[in-house]
Each structure stands twice: as C-alpha cells, then as structure tokens.
C-alpha cells in the first residue's frame, strides 16, 4: 500500500472515531427527549419487555428518574452539558492527527488510552452507582468499539514512520 493510500485510510479511520465522539457528545444534550422516545420504544409495555424484561424495566426506571429530576432539579443536567462539551472538545483534538498523523500520533495514543480507561471506570463506578451489569457491559463497549479504528490507524501511522 502506498503512502498516500495509507494517509487516506488513517484519515477515514480517524473521521469515523471523531463522528462517534461527536454523536456521543451531542446526544448528551436532549436527554429528556431521548429517554422518553427510548421508553416508548423499549420500556415497560413495549415488545422488548417480553424478550428482555430487565432492560425494559431499567429503561423505564431511568426514564422516570430523568423526568422527575428534570421537573424538580433541571440544573442537574448541566453536568451532562459538560459531558457533551468534553466529547466535542476531544473530537476537536483529533484535527491534529487528521492534518498530520505522524506528528500528532500522541493524540491517537491518548484516544486509545481513554478507550481502555472506559472499562475500569464502568466496572468500578457502575456497581457503586447501582448500574445493572448488562448496562455496564454496554458502557464498556464504547471503549472496545472506539479503540478499533484508533488501533488500526495507529498501526498504519507506525508503518508510515518505519
């Protein structure tokens, strides 16, 4: 594979990662609308309840909690606004490797470290916060799925420098 093609492949992989970060971040803003939609789709009384009752119950429980919090303490969602901001800011950091992957390989390494750290965070904080194990596994998957394009891009960047 020639250098130009490797650069294109790296950029495509990084764009996929950035798009994932942006979607993840932007979905932290409309939580109430999202949880209400999710509750209608897969909460109690939905088709999922007969297939996976624990998930349907969890979605309904989260829906009730978020709606009640929004009614009584809407300022609590300012924390998720900052979560969204963090995702967007991290995505912006990947402009460096998109421009010059070799010189900015450290950003890709940072992203891979962050993906790895998702797993212990979810496994430690999930049980502390009363998150069901199946949801903790879903949270861990963000790190597992996120690291794949970064790891492939990293290996290609290393080939360029070799």
Short account of what is shown:
The chain has eight helices and no strands. The chain is mainly α and 162 residues long. It has a domain at 3-29 and 77-161.
Report the oligomer: single chain
Largest sheet composition: none
Indicate the radius of gyration in whole angstroms. 19 Å
Count of discrete alpha- or pi-helical segments spanning 4 or more residues: 8
* Basic shape: elongated
Draw up the topology in text.
Blueprint lengths: L2 H24 L4 H12 L4 H5 L1 H20 L5 H16 L1 H5 L5 H24 L4 H29 L1
Helix pairs in contact: 1-5, 1-8, 2-4, 7-8
Structure, described:
There is one protein chain. The protein is mainly α. It has a domain at 3-29 and 77-161. It is 83% helix and 0% strand. It has 8 helices and no strands. It has helices at residues 3-26, 31-42, 47-51, 53-72, 78-93, 95-99, 105-128, 133-161. Helix 1 (3-26) runs antiparallel to helix 8 (133-161). The longest helix is centred in the last third of the chain and has 29 residues, at 133-161. It starts with a helix and ends with a helix. The mean pLDDT is 97.
């Amino acid at each position: 594979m020639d250098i130009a093609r490797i650069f294109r492949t790296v950029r495509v992989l990084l764009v996929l990662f950035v798009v994932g970060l942006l979607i993840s971040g932007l979905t932290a803003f409309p939580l109430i609308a999202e949880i209400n939609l999710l509750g209608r789709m897969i909460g109690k009384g939905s088709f999922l309840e007969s297939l996976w009752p624990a998930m349907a119950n969890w979605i309904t429980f989260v829906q009730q909690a978020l709606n009640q919090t929004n009614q009584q303490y809407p300022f609590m969602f300012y924390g998720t606004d900052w979560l969204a901001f963090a995702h967007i800011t991290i995505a912006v950091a990947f402009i460096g490797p998109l421009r010059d992957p070799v010189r900015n390989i450290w950003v890709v390494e940072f992203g891979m470290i962050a993906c790895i750290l998702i797993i212990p965070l979810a496994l430690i904080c999930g049980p502390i916060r009363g998150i069901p194990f199946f949801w903790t596994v879903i949270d861990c998957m963000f790190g597992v799925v996120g690291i794949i394009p970064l790891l492939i891009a990293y290996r290609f960047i290393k080939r360029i420098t070799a």
